[in-house]
Amino acid sequence: LNCDMAGFREVDRRQFPLQDIPAIVRLFKQQLESVSEPDLALLSIVVGAIENSLTCNRTITVQKETDTFGEAKLPAIEYHITEALYTKFHAIIKGAVDLSQYGSKKFASRELIKKVSDVIWNSLTRSYYKDRAHLQSLYSYLTGNKLDCFGVAFAVVAGCQVLGFRDVHLALSEDHAWVVFGEGGKETAEVTWHGKGNEDKRGQPIGPGVVSKSWLYVNGCPVICTRPMEVAALVSAINPSLNATSEAMEVALLQQELLWLLYDLGHLSHYPMAIGNLSDLEEVSPSPGRPPCAALFQEAATSARTYYRNQHVYPYTYQGGYFYRHKLYKEAFESWANAADVIRLYNYSRDDEEIYKEFLEIANELIPHIMKVVSSGHSARSILKDPECFAYLLRFYDGICQWEEGSPTPVLHIGWAKPLVNTISKFDADVRAQVVIICQNEDGTESTGENVSDTTVPGTTDGKSKLKSEDDVNAVIAALDEASDDCDKQKYLSNE
Ligand SMILES: FC(F)c1nnc(N2CCN(c3ncnc4sc(CC(F)(F)F)cc34)CC2)s1
């Protein structure tokens, strides 16, 4: 075996066939603790093979679900299958890239990365449903010539690892992936596509995306992966879905065990979305002796605040979704207000549809549902009597309004206004009066903006009557706009 088959040389053939989850965890642990770096191609092929056989075709007669010790049985992953696919990937990459043409051996060049991206790109099936599940691994690429947009970026990094370039790493935003390379990892290059109907920018640096302040490029705060974090990305990308409504339990358990291995080795600390994925899995089936999923959601948010200048939205929407599912509505409002505090820093651009849909669902489905179920309740501790809840909601809506300000693409439309007004008008004037808006002016001084209860909602007198017509709704929008124009920055505090 020559040197870059290191991945295999170190793999103890006796570990094969990999028959159960502990065997896979042992392989990952051995790779992550081996002196050199973990072999991305080997690990992606192994988990891809398992995911594919347990979710794509149930033709294999699945051995009885668990063995005598209750371990989920997996379809045996034979050494020779894995080795054949591994050798094929090496042959494709090394066969297509003549390294003598790319000068410096130490660092990769933009041309080399574009070449590796082209090799992957041009070997994909002409047309297929790109958003389908199970298209993220090298197993999918090597057996079906299909990859999703994350899978192409991952394959390019794995290809550069085969060629010996240790400087090429995966860069991840919340909805896109690209690579960093060169001395100090200072260069960036697009290597895959994004979204539907957008011309791909492969080979180009990501500079313009950061300048435009679009959420897609997270204001220059992407997750820059180390090799072990690239393993965390491939594990996060494991998809246990059998179909739209059910999951293969053994695949979900494997993903959960591998994420805990990576967590314990410290490789998730700078990766909020991976912590969020682990938390989602823990919510469904908690592991004994592990932190509760609520604590993990908090860890994801803390990681985003600590390492990514609080420019990531998903940790808060993960957390808000958890609170919502557990009927902790005030906590959900707070998480969603924190999510809106992040998005207000961005300008909404056409590439940001995914996060737009996230906020649309929160504002027009989840919050209205909460208002409906709490309206029937009559407890004094009701959400509707809590000024802090009103303050959270104002911060949420204001964040979305500020997101729109200065954006090339509008965010709000009448479909937003009705649920918004409906929600706000559920709080009585005496509750609203307890919320004090603190305005920070440009020179940093603070002034108390007009008290919210003074902005009597046009068309209402005692603040109790409900809004009747569409122009009332427009008037509220104007009032909200005017309120937000009054101050450069509004911070909603509710006095005790
Ligand atoms: F609660 C909601 F906010 C969410 N629930 N699941 C969410 N995910 C699930 C997992 N997920 C991810 N989890 C780990 N790493 C990555 S890197 C990435 C962008 C791209 F696919 F590379 F283009 C996405 C992503 C995307 C966000 S957000």
**Quantity of strands, as a count:** 9
Envelope shape: globular
Strand order in the sheet with the most strands? 5-4-3-6
Helical content class: 40-55%
Task: Please mark out the parts with pLDDT under 50 across 5 or more consecutive residues, or reply none.
Answer: 59-63, 451-468, 486-496
Highlighted features:
496 residues; alpha+beta; 4-stranded antiparallel beta sheet; 3-stranded antiparallel beta sheet; 9 strands; globular; disordered C terminus; binds the ligand FC(F)c1nnc(N2CCN(c3ncnc4sc(CC(F)(F)F)cc34)CC2)s1
Structure at a glance:
This protein is α+β, with helices and mostly antiparallel strands. The chain has helices at residues 6-10, 21-33, 40-55, 79-96, 110-122, 138-144, 149-162, 207-211, 227-236, 249-264, 272-284, 293-307, 314-325, 329-343, 353-376, 387-404, 414-424, 429-432, 470-486, and strands at 18-20, 73-77, 169-172, 177-181, 187-189, 223-224, 435-440, 446-448, 489-494. Strand 7 and strand 8 (446-448) form a beta hairpin.
